[in-house]
Specification:
- This protein is α+β, with helices and mostly antiparallel strands and 125 residues long.
- The chain has one helix and seven strands.
- The strands form two sheets. It has a four-stranded mixed sheet with strand order 5-2-1-7, with no helix packed on it.
- It starts with 15 loop residues before the first helix and ends with a strand.
């Protein structure tokens, strides 16, 4: 208490039901990540030829049983991934411009657990 104003986190102001739900959600996400394969390695986007197409490539995940990969896509103005495309390959050619979209690649296990997305770095300079 300072000059009549209460400062600090106090138990009487805590919403414990909200904390419980938030903790459960965090644990579920951590369990899903623990079951997922590791991230794809060396995710690259081709930048030598600036066209209205995007060529992505990556190396397989170092650990975990990988069923395939999701290529995620969103417009540059969107805060969330808008499209998800599955492939068992380690490359994908997309009919979308790299100027208008952000891309990422994530590993998918045989059980469907998804790893963390990896943003590509420029290749071919």
């Amino acid at each position: 208490m300072e000059n009549g104003t209460q400062f600090g986190d106090l138990p009487e102001f805590m919403d414990f039901e909200y904390l419980r739900k938030n903790t459960c959600m965090n644990l579920c996400n951590l369990a899903n990540l623990a079951k997922s394969p590791s991230m794809p390695q060396e995710v690259r986007v081709e930048t030598r030829r600036l066209t209205n197409f995007t060529n992505l490539s990556w190396k397989a995940s170092a650990t975990g049983k990988v069923k395939g990969y999701n290529v995620l896509m969103r417009e540059t103005t969107s805060p969330v991934w808008e499209k998800k495309m599955f492939t068992a390959d380690t490359k994908m050619d997309l009919p979308f411009s790299k100027d208008n979209y952000f891309f990422a690649v994530q590993s998918v296990s045989e059980d469907g657990n998804e790893g963390l997305p990896v943003l590509p770095t420029p290749a071919g300079r």
